[in-house]
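Quick one - inputs below.
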Amino acid sequence: MAVKFDRKKIGDGIHFTTLINERQKTNTVMIHLLTPLSAETASVNAVIPYILCGSSKEYPTLTVLNKKLAELYGAVIKGSVSKLGDTQVLSLMAGCINNKYTFSGEQITEEMTGILAGCLTAPNIVGNGFETKDFELKKQELLDDIDAEINEKRSYAFKRANMNIFRSEPAAVSVKGNREYAEKLTAASAYEQYKKLLAAAQIEVFFVGAGNSANNCMNILAETFSKIDRHYEGDNHSYMSPVKSDVCRVTEAYDVAQSKMVMAFKTEYDNIVSIKLMNAIFGATPISKLFMNVREKLSLCYYCSSGLNDKKGVLYVDSGVEHTNVGKAEAEILNQLEAMKCGDFTDDEMENARRALINSWKGVEDGARSIADWYFNQSYSGRSCSPEKQIEMLMNVTRNDVIEAARSLKLDTVYVLTGKEAAE
Amino acid sequence: MKKEIVKNERTGEQYTYIKHPTGLDIFIWKMENYNTTHALFGTKYGSINTKFKTKNEPDFITVPNGIAHYLEHKLFENEDCDVFSLYAKTGASANAYTSFDKTCYLFSCTDNVYDSLEILLNFVQTPYFTEETVRKEQGIIGQEIRMYDDNAGWRVFFNMLQGMYKNHPVKIDIAGTVESIAQINADLLYKCYYTFYNLNNMVLSIAGNVDEDKVLELCDKLLKNNDDPELETAFEPEPDTVCRSEVTQQLEISMPMFNIGFKARPENGIEAVRAEIETNFVLSLLADESSEFYKKLYDDGLINSSFSSEVFRGDGYFCSIFGGESREPRLVRDKLIEEIERCKIEGLDEERFNIIKRSYYGALIRDLNDAEAIATTMINAGMEKVSAFDVIETVANVTFEDVEKRLKKQFNTDNVTISIIEPIDVKEELS
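Output:
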C-alpha cells in the first residue's frame, strides 16, 4: 500500500505536503523554514528553533510545555537545524500517537498541531525580545555545542574538511555557525531575525500519518499562517561546487589515537540516479569496492565509505586510519576510483549495488521521518518523484552511465586530522 | 513443535511463539502493509560471559575478554566468501552486534525475504576459522578498540563501570583489550562457539511482511539438531558497594562530561523487567525535563540539554545512570543525592506520575510502527523468558506506591560512582 502524496500551497511561499500512511500508529507534523546559509546569520538561525520549541506564549516555560505534551501521551515537539546544500533548514517537529490509540479517543493530534503552531508564530516575548533567561540558556547551549564539535572526531574532521571543500561558498558555513557571531547574539537581535524569517523564509510543512487528522492539521496551520504578514523572498537553491585547479591538501594535528581522512571529489554530472548507483558500487555498502578492498582485504582502515552531497555535486570518502597508513589508504582509495572509471567492476557488483539501493528505497515508506525527508529532498530540487518511480529510473541505468558518472569525478580536497606525535 | 499465539488486547497486536524441536525459540510478528522485514538471530552470549561450564566439562573455565565480539566478526566469513557478498544477491542490508549479554545477527529487507533468511540461518550455524584468518582479524579489532579510545562518550561510561564494579566483567570493554584479544586463537573460538551457539541457547525473531508457514518450513530444513549441553554461566561474587567513588580521565574535549551511577542489586526475569520500568519512572520523576529539579539545575547553568538518565542492567548488574556535560559535575552529583534523599522522606509527585505513565505508554505504542523495534523487543523478551507485551502491560499497571518503594530500594546514595572526562588543560601540558 503506497503512501499517498499531495502538495498544496497554503500561503505565500508556504506549502503543505500530506503523506497519508495508514500503517503508522503515530502522526507527525514537520515545519521547515528554509533560508540561505551565511556566516552572519547561521548562529542566530541555529538558536531559533530550539527557543521556539522550548516554550510559547501559551506555555511560557519548558516545564509547563513538557507537562502538557506528556499529557498528550508523550507527544514530542523538538527543534533542529540542518544543512541542505547552500541552504540552512530550521525545523520544528511534532509527533504523537494516533488518536485511536488513546484511552478514550481524544483528538490529541489536532491539539498537538495547535501547540506547534503556537510555538512557531506566538513565542514567549518579553519586551522587545525572547524571554531573556531562556534565551541566554539556549545561547549558552549553542556556544557549548559549537565548542563540543571537537569531541566527536569523525564529524569534526568532516566539518573541517567542508570548510576547505567549499571555501567561499555558503555550504562552507557550519550549520551552527561560529563562536564569533554566536557570542554577540542578544534576545532582541534573535527576535528581530525570527520575525524576518517568519515573514520571508520558504516554509515547507509535512504531515505523515493516518488520513483522519491530515485535513484538520492543514486547516489549523493554514489559519495560523494567514495571520502572518508575509514578504516572501523566493525559493532556495544550491549551486554545484566548482572544482579547484589544484588539489587542496590540509593536515591538522589533535590529540587523537587514530587519524581521520576525508577526501572530496567533485562533479557536475546531473543524472542523480546514475551517480547514486556509482556511489553504491564504489563505497556506500559493505560489499562496495572501498569496504571489500581498503578495509577488509588490506585492513588499511577501520571504516572507509563514500557518500554523496547531490545538492553540491560532491562525493566524499570518509575513513578512519592508523597514522602511519594515511598515505597508503589515500593511494588505495584513488586506485579503487580509477577501477570504476575504467569500467573495472563486474556485472555482479553492479547488480548487487542496485539491489541494495532498491532495498533501502522500498523501506523509505515504512518510516514517518524517512518518507517526509524523502519528499522534502525532492521538493527542494523541484521534483516530486516517489521512491517507486526512482526505482524504475534506477532499473534503466547502464554500465556506461556508471562509468560516465565515475569519470566526471575530480579530486578536489584531501583533509587529514591526525595525532600530535604523528604530525611532528 | 509447540506453537502459541500471544495476543495483547490493549493494542490489538499479536505474534506467534514456536518452540522448535531443535531447541530454538522462534518469534514471528506479521505486520500487514509493510514493505520491510527485520530478522534477528541471536545467542545469549555477550562480553560478560567469560566463565562457564557444560555437562561435558564439569569445572568452570574462564576465557580471555573479547571473544564474543571476536566471534561475531569471524562468523561473517565463510570458507569461500564473505557473508555480505551472499546478502548482496538478495539486496538485504545486514549487520551484527555484540552487547554485554547477547550477540545478534540481523538483516532488513524488502524483497527476497526467504533467501535472506536462508543465508542468516546458514552462516550463523557454520563456523569457519583458521589461525591465519584469526590473526588477520586482530588488526581490524585492534583498530576498532583504539577508535573507541578517542570517543569521550564511550570512555566516560566505561570508566564509570570500572569504578562501580569490582569483579563483574561488565566493566570490561565489549571488544576486550588489545592484550586480551592477542590471546585469542582458533581453538578458543571454536570452544566458545560450540558452547554458546547451541540452538537451545538461541532465539530467532522476525517482524514484518512474512508468511509464518514459509519461515517454519525453512527452519525445519536448515536448523541443525544439537544436543543440549546444559550450559551454565557464572560470575565472581560482586559486593553491593562500589569499588571506587570517582574516576577521572582527560581527553581533548571542550566541556567536562560525566556519568553518575547508582549501584543496585540485580534481579532476573519478569522481576528485572519490573525493576527497570519502575526505576525508569523514578528517574523521570526525579530528573526528567519536566521536573523541578531539572529546571533548577538547568536555570543555574549546572546542566544543559544533554542531561539524561537511564537504567543499565543485565545478568548480574543493575544501575541507574545520570549523564551529561557540566562545568561542575561533582556539584551535580551532590545535588542529585540531596534530591533523592529529600524525595525518600517527602515522597514523589503523584500527578506527574500519572502524566509520565501516559507518556511512557505513548512511546511504547510508537515503537509498534517499526519492524526493527518490534523484532528487537521480541528477541530481548525471548532471551529473558518474558512476553514481548510484558513491558507495555507492566507500564499500564504500575502504581504510584510501586514507584515510591522502588526509589527507596534502588537508590542507595552511599553506592555512587562518578566518572568525569575533563578537557586537557593545554597550558598545563605545555609547562
